[in-house]
Amino acid sequence: MIEHHVRVHPSADRLPREDQLAWKLASVATGTEELDAGSTAMAVNRVIDNASVAVASLLRRPVAVARAQATAHRTAAPGASVFGSRSRVSPEWAAWANGTAVRELDFHDTYLAADYSHPGDNIPPLLAVAQHTGRTGADLLRGIIAAYEIHVALVKGICLHEHRIDHVAHLSAATAGGLGALLRLPTETVYQAVQQAVHTTTATRQSRKGEISSWKAYAPAFASKAAIEAVDRAMRGETSPSPVYEGEDGFLAWMLDGPDSDYTVLLPEPGEPRRAILDTYTKEHSAEYQAQAIIDLARRLREKAGPLDQVRSIVLHTSHHTHHVIGSGANDPQKYDPTASRETLDHSVPYIFAVALEDGTWHHERSYAPDRARRPGTVELWQKITTVEDPAWTRRYHDPDPERRAFGGRAVITLADGTVVEDELALADAHPAGARPFDRPAYTGKFRTLAEGVVTRSAQDAFLDSAARLAELSAADLGGLFPAVDTEAVAAFDASLPKGLF
Asked: What is the pLDDT of residues 194-217, one digit of tens each?
């Protein structure tokens, strides 16, 4: 890997484009050629994972709204497919609808480092553009692996959240790079597209604060739509605000650490295998990733804790990120509100721990049902749960050694009689270094579970066969990556919603 130092430069420096981060990201994209076998296999897993959560969310309101907006933009062949519809639409709108479907349940892959990310959000726009432009499965794989490489590098090197900037700013750069690799565009074109994408998708983290709304599901889809449009403009010869990262009025200077910004981004050398996708991990449970190990810990503690009406207090000792983003350190009263939105509850580790402790399981719908959240015993237990930052867990969260890095915590349960029950878990069971790492059978099992009642068994088999053969698929075969569903039932649900402009 090569260390690239990124800092602010005054305009008078006339920083050569080859020294700019956007150019270096573009070079990673356009230099992605021979693909690592492990990375290719993992990319297939993530295509399966995305489809799993997309089909499970088809009848959820934000997904239906995005789909209705997209299908109002039908296009002449070829166009791109939309989950739950037979329509072919313009690729940026397909990315919008499919990206929302993938993100809605907060149930697909993640990478945590200096910042947060869901790298699987790159796949919907890449698949849409591949279909629209007649690219093959091999082309799509190249784009996915390049996008993951860029996304992981940015998340490792540049923290956005400490400045309350939403993590989709890194996503849009990665998507633009992935599209460049998919389409084999010149480095100059990708460079311009990356800069346009970053410039237009920098937003605040209010989308993940307080009463969290459905925009949380839309945010990555919006970024991917913007990235497609940026690539289109760059292909037509349009230029961008430059240098978007290093400029004296640019991203680093005014959104991040300011004029004294100094970041290090690690990128692969020319010809070095693109293996960043192997650093990422998916979710076994439909909740914020930092709650994954906490759910597994609650299940493990269930018998030890005894009757839950005897609990006096529960304190979760965990990392800075977990405490301040999904814990009581966020100082969001909504995280303790039984009437809060689902989007808020899946970012409330006190709620999640209470329900997992009571039920011994987690379900993407039942665990968030309004009557479940308002159950008196649950509310009473929930209010007794707080989080604290433990410096040891914060250090492990950021540890450069993968063998030490951890995203869990320690639970201390104090009972009414003064008895203390405690246990800790560093990693979710499904993490690559966890008790039951996710493998292809686990991804397949997740798909079949979430597709039950939505996708027939034969259609499930057809999708899984297409995904497994992704490297061999022709352009015409890419439609097989959209599991067949009852589109009439989906259309009936869509028709029940209020109409908009389109």
From this structure: 999 999 999 998 887 777 788 888
